[in-house]
Every structure is written in C-alpha cells, then in structure tokens.
Amino acid sequence: MELRVLGYVMAIAEEGSISGAARRLALTQPTLSRQLRELERRLGTELFTREGRGLVPTAAGTALARRAAKVLAEAEAALEDVRLAAEGRSGRLTVTFAGSGINGPLGGMLGRLRRELPRVVLRLEESFSDTEMSAGVLDGRFDIAVQRLPMRDPRLVAQPWWQEPLTLFSPSGHPLAHGRGPAPLEALGQIPLVLWPRETSPQSYDEILALCHQADVTPRIGAEGHSVQTVLALVAAGFGAAVMTDSHRVLRRVGVTARPLAGTTTTLHLVWRTDDHNPLIERFRTVLADV
Description:
- It is a single chain.
- Helix 8 (202-214) links the parallel strand 8 and strand 9.
- This protein has ten helices and twelve strands.
- The strands form four sheets. A five-stranded mixed sheet has the order 4-3-5-12-6, with helices on both faces. Strands 10-7-11 form a three-stranded antiparallel sheet.
- The chain has three domains: 3-86, Winged helix-like DNA-binding domain superfamily/Winged helix DNA-binding domain (Arc Repressor Mutant, subunit A); 91-162 and 267-288, Periplasmic binding protein-like II (D-Maltodextrin-Binding Protein, domain 2), CATH 3.40.190; 166-264, D-Maltodextrin-Binding Protein, domain 2, CATH 3.40.190.
- By secondary structure, it is α/β, with parallel strands linked by helices.
C-alpha cells in the first residue's frame, strides 16, 4: 500500500467528506473517489459510510486511519533523518585527540559542538601516540583525529587548524623557571629532559631531539612518562624539564613553571581519510573553523 493512499484515508477521515479532502490534497473529487473505491476493493471492506452530508469511518476505516497516522509519522521522521544525515547534522562521529587538543582549543569547542549538533553522537578517544591516531583514522577506528604530528600518507588529509608555541615546563625551583620572556633553545642543554618514550610517541620524541640539535646541545634524559600528568609530576619532582605545547599550562601543576621556547611553533591538524566523504566530517570541520 502506497504512502500517498494512506494520506488519502487520513484526509477523508479528518475532513469528513470527499470534497473537503480533495481540496486539501489538491485532487479532483472523482480522482479521490476512485482511489477510495479501489482501496476498499483491494481490502474487501468499506472504510467509510455516509452519515448525513458527510462520511464517517467504519470500524475498519478507523483502524486503518490510526495505523496510517503512525506510518506517515514514521515516514516523515525517516525523511528528516535522511536530510539531517546528508547535512552532517546526525549520526555518529569518533574523534581521537591528544592532550594538546583537549587542553587547548578542542576542549573549548566541545560544548559548542554539542549545542550545534545535538543529534550527533560524539565518541571521544584520547591517545598519547600520533602514530596510533593516524593509523586509527586509516583503518577506520576513528573518523577524524586532532593531532600535532600526523603520519605522512597520501591516503590522509592533514588540515592545519591551530598554532601555538612549544613551551618548556621546568621545576619551579630551577633557575630556568625564573627567567623573563621566552626561554632560549639553548636551555634544553641546561637541564635534564622528561620525554615521552620513543616507542610510545616517536614523532614527539624526535621533535624534541631535533630542537636540541638545532640549539647545538646534547640532550640528557632525566626520565620518561607515558601521560601528560605523569610527565608533569616528574617535572615537579625535579627529574628535569618537559617540552610540550603551551596549552598544557592550563593544567597548572603545582611545582611546575611554564615558559615558551623562543622561536618555536607547533600546529594542530585535523586529519581524515581522503576517501571518506562522511558529511559529519565536513560539519565537524566547519564548526571548528570558527574557533
């Protein structure tokens, strides 16, 4: 049974006449009468009886009108779901991010994302490895990554989104913590460093060693930590200084002082697969573009 025919039944039941329903549906009375007779023939029962100058539903007509109302409402809801999905306003989106994202601009945008995309289920997954984030986008575990050091792969799009300096997080009692202005790169040779293990985050590890090479200093490894909180705790305990994005200063770890590293900058990227045309990704990027 076609949805339009159910609409005819609903219109006749609500208007109480063929003429009123025909006007509402922009049909001629003979056309609507013919459609009703054909439906009653197929069902083998009358759906309406004449009462005075109008039509009233029979028991079968009442049953069909009630069911038709539910079916038409579900059909309308289905069309709305399709429209919202096509516009990137409904569905499910899995986003992976590092501390540099959630402690920086991404954290401030999550509330806006929830307000502007209330029908989107956002699944957020933190990662401490840039390699893992990019690999997860490639294999479909994540729809989009918010990361600093994406994998170079022609199957990935890496769109620059946010820039900030790299910052030296030193023990508050160390002389480096009391200098004015940005810390020079040469400071990396004046204190042991607290790093991510290279097997956990090779890009970040190599980035810091490259800064030491640029400053012509030999790095001394004081300790390694597998999370931002652990790294900052080791810094506070005096194991050395850590180089991280400036956004981590919002954590305000007691015993740790932050100074930007002179001449450095880092970029957060939005990373997704080149062949992924999910409208949600475009909508997500559009919202974040207004940061």
